[in-house]
Fold this sequence. Notes:
Elements: H1 11-25, E1 30-31, H2 37-50, E2 53-58, H3 60-65, H4 73-86, H5 91-94, H6 102-118, H7 125-133, E3 138-142, H8 148-152, E4 159-161, E5 164-171, E6 180-181, H9 183-193, E7 196-197, E8 203-204, E9 237-241, H10 251-266, E10 272-277, H11 288-296, E11 302-307, E12 313-314, E13 321-325, H12 328-333
Parallel strand pairs: 2-3, 2-10, 3-4, 10-11, 11-13
Antiparallel strand pairs: 1-12, 5-6, 5-9, 7-8
Zinc ion (ZN) binds near residues 171, 230, 232 and 233.
Amino acid sequence: MNPNYSELRNGYLESIQKGMQTVRTLSGTISRGNGTKEERLKRLLEEIETAQAIVIGAGAGLSTSAGLTYSGEKFDQYFGDFSNRYGIRDMYSGGFYPFPDDETRWAWWSRHIYVNRYVYPPGSVYNTLLDLVKDKDYFVITTNVDHQFQKAGFDKERLFCTQGDYGLWQCSRPCHQRTYDNKGTVVKMLLSQGFAIGENSELIAPVMEDGKTDYASLSMKVPSGLVPYCPVCGEPMTMNLRSDDTFVEDESWHKASAAYAQFLQSHQDQHVLYLELGVGANTPVIIKYPFWHETLHNDKALYACLNLGEAFCPKEIEEKSICIDGDIADCFEE
Ligand SMILES: [Zn+2]
């Protein structure tokens, strides 16, 4: 690690450790909260208005609510050839597919990166969220890697994207702790396959008379000259996404991690709303458990959990929690 970072606090690890410690002390009984949905939404709105600070924790459910889905129409439109040849059913599983060569792998990944990271989402839930909190003292921690908070205009000084970014590459070894913007190369890769880029950054596939994608005129490989290699050691580049201990935590990551620790600490005795949006129950350690920890240890804190199908809290903080089961965009509408 770059020695410059060693003096910074690591809010990522600190908060995970605190959350894990706290969860071990809980009874394991969960609560789904009290009151009607209308009452809960009203209480949430009051809390957003009155809280001295808001910590937003966002998971995949928020981007799903914005219409960024890994299967369905968008998949059929841009990945039908990969689906036919390799039996890949959705974008998520395609990310793990052992493609036969780098040229094919990057053809897949350039499409995957672009439609998740560089196009605008169909829904406006991120913009609505910003409208709700923009005049507040807020901070965002997210496991999402699709850059939607930045695109909606959230202050990047108040944002910590813990798991990487589709828009960044890193050395696969990695031989050094830096990341590289990939947009220019990704666009070249797409053009080389027969796609076009529209005026509003949309990805345009060639179509047949019936409007369906004309896969016969698309290539499933990029030219070898576009396969990215590390500028330092020459090994292949890879996505800057946390999957194992080769994930590069670059300078911006460390600064954001320290800013998160600082934000939590400086508000730890205040009226803070921990607003959890679309965080799955199967990956609770990064956001959910730390939010429970902070709520449990601060009399003035409140925990809100908006989730479609998985809105719950530990019994111990039931009185300080607002659990709302539903689509996040719909909840904001209401
Ligand atoms: Zn390298």
